Structure formats: structure tokens, C-alpha cells
């Protein structure tokens, strides 16, 4: 059987290419009907042989162009990310960065007003541009602040609406109450009983020459 298989396998290439004589083809077919190993050998021969495409002359140029396009895309994405980060950073800085304003720069003024129930009291307000009174942790305590980039803060706050506690004026205050304002140069209290301001802690230079707001 081994000898017969060797002979048939020598004829298989001619048989697969339809080049064997009729007698040889008949002999091969008879053997194939009885031998699975030779049938498998023939099936292997008849499988298509993969053909590698010949390299194109411009293949290196295509690779270079593809690499340049990827690099250009990465550069554009990095530039966009950097620009976006710069805009976000500028916006956050403009929205949050603020400084305390000196007491006199805040142009604080106390107004004597009557409430709806007829009771008399005071309202404190700032007359300076872009200056706000920001309530602190304690009741009746405020900070006089100004944002470093007011137009950025105001524009973003219209969208975010987070600084709802910023005030241009305080609420109505009874005459037996007082308010404290932390300014950049000193802390000042307003006495509601006699309508006067007085410094808390340190005093400014030439204190006797200071003109307090009415």
C-alpha cells in the first residue's frame, strides 16, 4: 500500500493540473476512492496559494504622508486642548479671583429707613463701582470685595448663578443691631443705635483726620 501511495502521489500534481493521461487519471481516481491520506494530499494541492502583492513604488510616500497626517492631527488636538485649558483657566480666575477693598474705596454709606411695619432702621450700601458686600460666616459680618476681572465674573455668574450672596446693600437692620465690615485696611463696625462708624482693632494713620462717611 505504501508503494502504491508513493506512485499515486507522484501522479497527483499532473492529475490536479489535468495533465495526466486518461489511464493514469483513472488509476488515480480509483486509488483516491480507497485512500483518505491521498485524498487529503490532493485537497491540499488544490487549495489556492495566497499571492503576496508586489510592493508599489509609491508605498514609502504613502507611509510618509500617513505619518505626517497623524502628526498634524495630534498637533491640532494638542493645540485645541491647550487653548481650551487656557480659556477655562482664565474664566475660572476671572470668576473667583477677588481682593478686599479698603474701607474708604468701598464708599460705604448708611441710610436711615423705615420698614413696612413702621419701625426705623438702617441699610448699609456700597457706592463704589464693582464693589460687593459678601456675607461671612457670622451674622451681620461682611467683606468688602472687588473681583479682579469684573466683566468675566459678571458674565459667568449670569450662567452659573452661584454668587447669590453678593450684595450691593445689606438688608434692613434694626437700630439696636450693628454690622461689621472687613475691609482691606481695617475692620469697621456700624453702630445702629447712634448711626456711627468705629474701627475695630487697628486704626489707620492720622486717625483724627479721617472723614467718616455720613
What's the shape?
Answer: rod-shaped
Number of helices: 5
Instruction: Please indicate the percent range of residues in DSSP E strands (runs of 2 or more).
Output: 15-25%
Mean pLDDT: 80
Could you give the order of the helices and strands? HHHHEEEEEHEEEE
- Sheet with the most strands, sense and barrel status: 6 strands, mixed
Question: From the alpha-carbon coordinates, what is the Rg to the nearest angstrom?
Answer: 46 Å
What share of the residues lie within helices?
Answer: 40-55%
Class inferred from helices and paired strands: alpha+beta
Distance between the termini: 126 Å
Number of strands: 9
Return residue spans where pLDDT drops below 50 for at least 5 consecutive residues.
Answer: 204-210
